[in-house]
């Protein structure tokens, strides 16, 4: 009996040692979920102008009634996805005098101070939402916003990878100032400005993910994404645009070689790796399938202030359950512009998590 007990004890110890020393499979960067912000740079439209817009188009004005804290403050909270709208302005000054300022004056009001440092006069990409009406931004220059997040990253080197979606804004049908078109040359300036701020070692590029595979999609589907630990402290940029602009960008970077940006290319294309699927209710099964195959997917928890006004979490719950790795919201904190308690976060008020529950969140 004593011998039997000793054998049982020895077997238990052996099993414990085997489990203890078994190497845990590393977490891949597509096995995480992060929450981030939509139009992350945006400052609310000042009230006299918003009231004017509301009289003209109440639905449209309500969809623009949101605001954000500075990018560094968002990152401090734990957000790991940002969205930046860029407007082409190679000579500078094209967007210096938005009509909205004059509209406020015609209403007998004094507009808030705007661009006192004449940043919009500088050549280069600008960053705001809509010319003439939704033009206030924490960072009027794209490069200024990039520098802000780089500075934050340099002080928090072990952070989860940060996903940055880029909208290259041109064209409108609202009788507003027509943005300059994003030609192939204009799209190249996005890469140039990013590389002027970030060192290559701080970027997750298509080349890094592709490795020795012939195409980016093949690498993602066969090898998968890098281990999370190898991409901490890094940034991944995505061109979230229509097929025309994506084709222009790819023309300059066949198979995205030597590019900074990933693109929202549909699966089956050599460049397919990161997909933007905004509606997780309508496309729930589609997103689940993409995630299971190995693609990164960005979806949305809310849109146009609708969910915040009705405290509706359906879209957010679907986005979480779909497995989409990146979930965008305007409400990581509740609205300060209208009454609402709507607020998006994971459990314990976090904005990042590892999807596999076998791994411990660091």
Tell me what the structure shows.
The protein is of the alpha/beta class. About 35% of the residues lie in helices and about 10% in strands. The chain contains 14 helices and nine strands. Helix 6 (about 140-155) packs parallel to helix 7 and helix 12 (about 285-295) packs parallel to helix 14. The longest helix has 20 residues, at about 1-20. The protein starts with a helix and ends in an 8-residue tail after the last strand. Mean pLDDT is about 90; it is low at about 15-20 and about 355-360.
Describe the secondary-structure layout.
Layout: H1 2-21, E1 32-37, H2 47-56, H3 58-63, H4 71-77, E2 81-86, H5 99-106, H6 142-155, E3 162-168, H7 184-197, H8 206-210, H9 216-222, H10 228-231, E4 235-239, H11 243-252, E5 261-263, E6 274-276, H12 284-293, E7 296-300, H13 306-310, H14 314-322, E8 326-329, E9 352-354
Radius of gyration: 23 Å
Helix content range: 25-40%
Let me know the number of strands. Answer: 9
What structural category do the secondary elements indicate? alpha/beta
Strand order of the largest sheet: 6-7-8-1-9
The helix/strand order is: HEHHHEHHEHHHHEHEEHEHHEE
- Largest sheet features: 5 strands, mixed
First-to-last CA distance: 45 Å
Overall mean confidence score, pLDDT: 92
């Amino acid at each position: 009996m004593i011998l039997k007990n000793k054998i049982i004890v020895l077997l238990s110890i052996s099993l414990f040692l085997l489990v203890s020393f078994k190497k845990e499979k590393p977490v891949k960067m597509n096995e995480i979920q992060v929450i981030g912000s939509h139009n992350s740079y945006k400052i609310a439209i000042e009230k006299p102008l918003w009231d004017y817009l509301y009289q003209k188009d109440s639905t449209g004005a309500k969809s623009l009634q949101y605001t954000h804290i500075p990018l560094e403050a968002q990152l401090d909270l734990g957000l790991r996805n940002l969205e930046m709208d860029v407007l082409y302005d190679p000579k500078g000054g094209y967007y210096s005098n938005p009509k909205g300022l004059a509209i406020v004056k015609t209403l007998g009001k004094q507009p808030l101070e705007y661009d006192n440092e004449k940043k919009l006069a500088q050549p280069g990409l600008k960053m705001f939402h809509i010319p003439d009406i939704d033009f206030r931004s924490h960072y009027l220059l794209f490069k200024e916003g990039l520098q802000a997040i780089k500075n934050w990253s340099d002080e928090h080197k072990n952070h989860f990878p940060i996903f940055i979606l880029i909208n290259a804004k041109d064209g409108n049908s609202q009788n507003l100032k027509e943005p300059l078109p994003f030609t192939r040359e204009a799209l190249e300036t996005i890469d140039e400005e990013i590389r002027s701020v970030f060192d290559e070692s701080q970027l997750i590029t298509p080349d890094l993910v592709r490795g020795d595979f012939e195409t980016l999609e093949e690498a993602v589907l066969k090898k998968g994404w890098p281990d999370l630990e190898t991409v901490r402290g890094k940034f991944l940029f995505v061109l979230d645009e229509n097929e025309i602009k994506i084709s222009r960008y790819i023309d300059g970077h066949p198979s995205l070689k030597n590019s900074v940006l990933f693109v929202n290319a549909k699966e089956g294309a050599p460049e397919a790796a990161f997909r933007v699927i905004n509606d997780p209710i309508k496309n729930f099964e589609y997103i689940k399938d993409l995630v299971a195959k190995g693609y990164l997917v960005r979806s949305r928890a809310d849109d146009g202030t609708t969910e915040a006004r009705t405290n509706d979490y359906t879209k957010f719950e679907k986005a979480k359950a779909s497995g989409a790795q990146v979930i965008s919201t305007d409400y990581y904190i509740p609205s300060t512009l209208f009454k609402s308690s709507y607020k998006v976060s994971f459990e314990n008020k976090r904005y990042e998590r590892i999807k596999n529950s076998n791994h411990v969140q660091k």
